[in-house]
Structures are given as C-alpha cells and as structure tokens.
Amino acid sequence: MFQRDILCFAELAECLNFTTAAQRLYMSQPGLSKIISNMERDLDVRLFSRSTRNVRLTAAGEQFLITCRGFLRQCEMLKSQNPQDAITVSGALEIGIGDLNENRYFPQIVNKFSARHPHCAISVKRYNPEELLKAIDAGKVDFGVMTSYTVPEHGFQSLVYYPSPLMLVTSPSHPLADRKKVGIGELRNERFIFIDRTLSRADERILEICEKGGFKPNIVTETNSLSSMMMLVTTGIGISLNFKLHKESFNYDLRFIELDLGEDEDAPTTDGATLVWKQENTNPIVPLFIRCARSCISNFSSSEG
To answer: Which domains does the chain have, with CATH numbers?
Structure first.
C-alpha cells in the first residue's frame, strides 16, 4: 500500500461512487474495488460501508481519510523541498502530436516530467494521425498525443488526460451560431467539412454520430489538417463537429455550441485529448512518463472542480 493506493482511497472517499471514482482515476471499476478491499484487509478495518444503492465512509474510514490527506500533502512537500534527492534517470522520449492543438494541459505534463527527470531528452514532432499510429506501432515514437476518436479499439494503450465534450462548430454568421444547444438531428441538412479520412480515423466516429441522428452528412469538402478545417468553417461554407478543447487553440472567429447527442447528460466525458502508447514499448522512461501524466490528471480534475 503506497501513494497510488492512497490516491485511490481519497478519490473514492470524495465522490462515494466506485464507477465515478474509477473513471476519474482512469482505471477499471473492478481494479479500484480490489485496491480498496486489499487496503481494508491490510488495515483490518472496514473503510467503506457498501450497499446496492450507495457507498459511505465508516468512522474508521473518516479517520483514515484525514491521515491520507496529510500523507499526500507530505509527499508533495517532500518532492518539492528536496529536488537534490530525486532519483535521477536519463534517456530519451519521442512524442508525436496528432490531430489536435492542445496547449493547456499537455505542456504541464511535459514540464512536470522534465522537472522530475531533467536528464531525460524529450523530442516532440507533428504527424498526421495515421502516420503517428504507424510510428508508435513501429517503436519510432514512444507516445502519441491525439483525440480519442483517432485511437483504434485494439493494439494501443491510451489515457484521456483532458476530457472534452463534442460540440458543433460554426461561423459567427451561421443561423445556429447564437443557439446554446443543438440536437444532432437538426444538422441533417447542413454542409459538413471533414478531415481527409485517409489521414484520420476521427471522422469515422463523426459518421457514426450522424447515423445515430438519422442522417448521412453532406460533406462538401475534406481538408488535410485540423487548422485548415477550422479556417474553412470561419468562411461559412460548412460546419464541423469537434471537441470543446479546440476552442482555446485557434484564433479564428468560431462558435462552439453544445451538442445534444441523445445520451446521458450526467455521464462523465470519456473522450478528448489522449495519450497513446504501445504496451510492448521497452523504453524504461515510458512508465515514468505515464506515472507523471496520471499524477497531473488528478491535479487537472481538482482545478476543474
């Protein structure tokens, strides 16, 4: 039982829901349940009272939570006040940027990792998503940064570090530009701008969403990059469906409008900016970077809250 397990306990103690806590921790619900059960076994006390309807802290759990919060604060203080005693590692990390411009959270992950491991060289290059997946698969790139829609269902490991809802993107002059929310079915007669489907899998997901809305999108043009697509949307020749996180990434005058996909509005967002890697990658720096990313994600969630 160490810091990761303590973080799991603290997250569950905050939201009192195994499914929600597992999603916030980017792990499976059975995995979280096992960690909590092991903690209770090691401590020989019940930390949570569970029923089919709810989860609540026991008296022992409330007391343990106070101890855990203090422990986590001390861990952060120890690392920040004693950088000279950090375990130094050296090596190189190749990172590829795919179909997104995300300058909010990923730089923070890289900065934190570089501060912890100053002797690790980090190289960052831009790829189209399909080229990036091939480079990761071939071991030429350690990590890819792309939207979750681009990641294949099998063959890769992934971690959504910046959850973001899908939104309708229009020019300011579009008839829907002043709406607060638009249903997917209302877009059946719209003209769509897509990224070339030989360069990105993301549009396959958009096609599926439109199909659920009862129509096949009228694609008026396809472009070879996200930036080009957003620029074309500003001209008014068509609309796009894209993640809210891109709202902060471009200087174009665009309107991002909430999209009703007919799904559970209270369900947490599981799509967005994603870190992708191959489990078979033998670079010893890879697990260190993943650990750093997971640590940052907890801080991102706290700042959003």
So the answer is: 3-83 (1.10.10.10), 89-161+270-304 (3.40.190.10), 166-260 (3.40.190.290)
